[in-house]
């Protein structure tokens, strides 16, 4: 099957205009097989709309989105080519997880025995005979991932798959997705959990306000921001923030320190002196993905 040999996702000039908003705006990027690619953006950036266009659930205003060189609608055997979860999976409330997956197998012409394999894969075997209405959010999420895997697809497209998972569930999913990528599959996953993405993803596509902000490996993107984040301690944080350029990104750390990016230590020290703000600590930390993400998307309208 051609989809198996080439699971590259290619988005080219993709645009979706709703009445009032350009949800996706001339977006182009590629997603390679054999890697986990994180799809990141602030709320309302256009991630879900992009994924829905890839899956032929929303019609683009212009541009194209293809999987292995084909539009989703033209795939010969879509369930074996692409598995997707777009939100916590739905199922008939009175049906068991096992019956739900068997029904999907039947509908897709997949042997029913695959349902049990997949339940095992997603850790739901002990709950296989319980009804969906009694499933927790994390269990529903696992069932959704199971449904996406039924066709043993070359490409996986997952919108916020970690939603509702506890820390152990998140680690389980990380291992599962990394394993699937190691088998040569294409794994595209959107998430707001930046520290998790930093561990999980090989590559990133970052968008804001419908446009591409950055594409590359996690390491390259973090390194490209070069300037380290500053950790600052002062008894007058509000005065210090007021003395800094408005484009500077400041986060308040739980331990009371300020994490500042977009300004170098010397400038910050000078500004503090001018504003007569005492500094008790001024240290440069290596930037993390959260910090880089905030810098890259700062000032780009999110909720539109
Ligand atoms: N069916 C629709 N009709 C009108 N506007 C829409 C529709 N779907 C999405 N939008 C708008 O398009 C923009 C992008 O939405 P989208 O859901 O794709 O963003 P997102 O990046 O997935 O956001 P989040 O991280 O909050 O889930 C938003 O401004 C949203 O309000």
UniProtKB/TrEMBL annotation:
<dbReference type="InterPro" id="IPR027417">
    <property type="entry name" value="P-loop_NTPase"/>
</dbReference>
<keyword id="KW-0547">Nucleotide-binding</keyword>
<dbReference type="InterPro" id="IPR003439">
    <property type="entry name" value="ABC_transporter-like_ATP-bd"/>
</dbReference>
<dbReference type="InterPro" id="IPR017871">
    <property type="entry name" value="ABC_transporter-like_CS"/>
</dbReference>
<dbReference type="Pfam" id="PF00005">
    <property type="entry name" value="ABC_tran"/>
</dbReference>
<comment type="similarity">
    <text>Belongs to the ABC transporter superfamily.</text>
</comment>
<dbReference type="InterPro" id="IPR003593">
    <property type="entry name" value="AAA+_ATPase"/>
</dbReference>
<dbReference type="GO" id="GO:0005524">
    <property type="term" value="F:ATP binding"/>
</dbReference>
<protein>
    <submittedName>
        <fullName>ABC transporter ATP-binding protein</fullName>
    </submittedName>
</protein>
<keyword id="KW-0067">ATP-binding</keyword>
<keyword id="KW-0813">Transport</keyword>
<feature type="domain" description="ABC transporter">
    <location>
        <begin position="9"/>
        <end position="234"/>
    </location>
</feature>
């Amino acid at each position: 099957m051609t989809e198996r040999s080439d699971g590259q996702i290619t988005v080219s000039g993709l645009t979706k205009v709703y009445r009032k908003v350009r949800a996706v705006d001339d977006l182009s990027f590629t997603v390679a097989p054999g890697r986990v690619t994180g799809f990141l953006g602030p709320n309302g950036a256009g991630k879900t709309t992009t994924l829905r266009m890839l899956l032929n659930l929303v019609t683009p205003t212009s541009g194209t989105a293809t999987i292995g060189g084909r539009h989703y609608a033209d795939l010969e055997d879509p369930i074996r080519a692409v598995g997707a979860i777009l939100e916590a999976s739905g199922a008939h409330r009175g049906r068991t997880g096992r019956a739900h997956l068997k029904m999907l197998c039947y509908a897709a012409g997949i042997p029913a025995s695959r349902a049990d394999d997949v339940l095992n894969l997603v850790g739901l075997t002990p709950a296989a005979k319980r009804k969906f209405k009694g499933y927790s959010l994390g269990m529903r999420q696992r069932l959704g991932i199971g449904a996406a895997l039924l066709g043993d697809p070359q490409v996986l497209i997952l919108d916020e798959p970690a939603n509702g998972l506890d820390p152990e569930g998140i680690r389980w999913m990380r291992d599962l997705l990394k394993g699937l990528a190691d088998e040569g599959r294409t794994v595209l996953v959107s998430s707001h959990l930046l520290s998790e993405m930093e561990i999980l993803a090989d590559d990133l596509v970052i968008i804001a306000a419908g446009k591409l902000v950055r594409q590359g490996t996690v390491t390259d993107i973090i390194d490209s921001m070069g300037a380290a984040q500053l950790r600052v301690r002062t008894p007058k944080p509000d005065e210090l923030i007021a003395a800094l350029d408005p484009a500077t990104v400041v986060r308040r750390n739980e331990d009371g320190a300020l994490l500042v990016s977009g300004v170098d230590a010397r400038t910050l020290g000078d500004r503090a002196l001018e504003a007569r703000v005492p500094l008790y600590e001024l240290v440069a930390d290596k930037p993390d993905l959260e910090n880089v993400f905030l810098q890259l998307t700062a000032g780009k309208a999110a909720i539109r």
